[in-house]
Amino acid sequence: MGKSLGFIAGSLIGAAAGTAIGILVAPRAGAETRAMASDMANDAWDSARDLYEQGAKQVRETVDDFGPMVDSKTDELREKVDLARERMDRLRESLNEAVSGGSVKPAADVVVETADCAAAAAEAKANAGA
To answer: Dihedrals φ, ψ of 66, to 5°?
Structure first.
């Protein structure tokens, strides 16, 4: 990539130098040649300024369009987070009601019972094999 960029830059510089030398060596009066060079420089400056202004305008429009899009996505994300919080709160409330009502045992009791069941199953298997 670097070699091709260098080649392009060298080509452009060579073309500009060739044009400048051609203008200066051309069989015209000095004042006419200077006027042509001045016109060409002014045209190049105007073109560069127009190109800059177009680019700046496009960047401004892109930034202006990007802001509302970010705000929209942020609002959507906040709504989803709020909905998830509401669901978690409802789930927590229903779980608390079930635990306090005695229909569900806390997780610590379930783990202990599961471990006891696993130990009992292992003991029963060992007794069956003996």
So the answer is: -70, -40
How far apart CA 93 and CA 113 sit, in angstroms, is: 24
pTM beyond 0.70, yes or no: no
pLDDT tens-digit series, residues 67-100: 888 888 899 999 999 999 999 999 888 888 887 7
* H and E: helices and strands count for the chain: 3, 0
Task: Give the DSSP letter string of 42-90.
Answer: HHHHHHHHHHHHHHHHHHHHHHHHHHHHHHHHHHHHHHHHHHHHHHHHH
User: Cα torsion for 67, 70, 76, 82, to the nearest 10°?
Assistant: -100
Rounded to 5°, the CA angle 97-101-106 comes to 75
Q: CA separation (Å) from 53 to 50, 65, 78, 80, 124?
A: 5, 18, 38, 41, 85
- Please, are residues 107 and 100 in contact by the beta-carbon 8 Å criterion? no
